[in-house]
Amino acid sequence: MKNVLETERLILRGWKEDDASSLFKYASDDRIGPSAGWLPHKDVGYSRAVIRTIFAKDEVYAICIKGQEKEPVGSIGLTLKGSPERPIEEGTAELGYWIGYPYWNNGYVTEAVKEVMRHGFEDLGLHRIVCGYFDGNNRKNVALNMSIPMKDRIFQCLTKQELSTLA
Q1: pLDDT per residue over 140-151, tens digit each?
Q2: Which ranges constitute the DSSP H helices of 5-158?
């Protein structure tokens, strides 16, 4: 059973197969997937397959607004193990996230990022969290800068010590 993380306005919980229609609703939007490196979902069956495979991994959470926990509006997670092409060092994780268009500009991603980083450092014992994004993905750049004020605009990194200095 996955952890459930909570913030002032959000519940971050594991994905369920019943979430497929909500996932499709937001992940089929052309404004979401391409900037994150994936194609828009074409049908609910594909979204269900993503939940069974990609979203079934440890530390991948559905972003739900409190009081509306049955409809995830986005996803956030930490990748703890890389691949041969993209290895991840021990004690390091890569942060990834997206949120549905109707929820942009509400601070939900910033809130979720802060909680997942706290969880990574305090509960999982990570030493470093990195987040890469595609050049031109200004939405992720804005969210990261609100969560992690760093100089590097394409690949950002935060250590446990740096997290404690953020307001």
Answers
A1: 444 444 444 433
A2: 20-27, 33-36, 44-52, 108-118, 138-147
List, as one string, the DSSP characters of 126-150: -SEEEEE--TT-HHHHHHHHHHS--
Backbone angles phi, psi at 40, to 5 degrees: -60, 145
User: Model's pTM, two decimal places?
Assistant: 0.82
**What residues does each domain of the chain span?**
5-163
Instruction: Return d(Cα 18, Cα 62) in angstroms, integer.
Output: 12
Place of tokens 């490196």: 37
Distance CA 24, CA 47 (A): 6
Q: 5-163 is classed in which CATH architecture?
A: 3-Layer(aba) Sandwich (3.40)
Q: Is the pLDDT of residue 136 over 60?
A: no
As a dihedral over the C-alpha atoms of residue 43, residue 17, residue 2, residue 34, rounded to 10 degrees, the angle is 0
How, if at all, do strands 92-99 and 128-132 pair?
parallel
Position of tokens 């509400």?
106
Task: Report in angstroms the alpha-carbon separations of 112 from 7, 79, 90, 96, 116.
Answer: 7, 15, 23, 11, 6
